[in-house]
Specification:
The chain is of the alpha+beta class. The chain contains 3 helices and 3 strands; from the N terminus they run H-E-E-H-E-H. The chain has helices spanning 4-25, 65-87, 102-128; strands at residues 34-41, 47-54, 94-99.
């Protein structure tokens, strides 16, 4: 029987165990700027995917994604044993690390929204000084129709 709530609880516990182990117990300098963002566990509790981001050493520095991935690959066995000891489940899930692309996607969305706002402002400025291409009131009114005043044709 599948228990997705249990898988979600286990994923949350795994992410906290892995994050604390990377921050305090594993001394690999390649993992100094790695942040665990999320974890997902399959419903059968056998596989866990852990999402991470990598920050640069400074604001201007590019993060070293390859070194972080190599550091996580090397520490996978230690991290899995810590997850097994910290969760107490019968079968310790296999750990797979995946680079989290949500921050990059969010930045791209913010750039698109900013560009759309700039285009909207440009259109609004042009519309403020624009004049109609035809008449000011292009719709027919009752006064324009032929016939008597009640609108019926002659």
């Amino acid at each position: 029987m599948v228990d997705s709530a249990r898988a979600a609880r286990l994923a949350k516990r795994i992410s906290s165990i892995v994050a604390s182990a990377i921050g305090t117990e594993i001394k690999d300098p390649r993992l100094a700027h790695v942040t665990i963002t999320d974890a997902r566990v399959t419903n059968d509790l056998h596989d866990a995917t852990i999402f991470y981001t990598v920050m640069g050493e400074s604001i201007d520095a590019e993060p070293d994604y390859d070194a972080a991935a190599a550091g996580l690959a090397k520490a996978t066995g230690i991290l899995r044993s810590k997850v097994g000891a910290g969760t107490g489940v019968r079968f310790t899930p296999t750990l797979t690390f995946a680079l989290d692309t949500v921050p990059d996607a969010a930045r791209q969305m913010e750039e698109l929204v900013a560009r759309a706002r700039a285009n909207d402002e440009l259109v609004a400025r042009q519309a403020a000084t624009a004049t109609p291409a035809g008449e000011a009131d292009p719709y027919r009114s009752r006064d324009d129709e032929p016939g008597d005043e009640d609108g019926s044709p002659e």
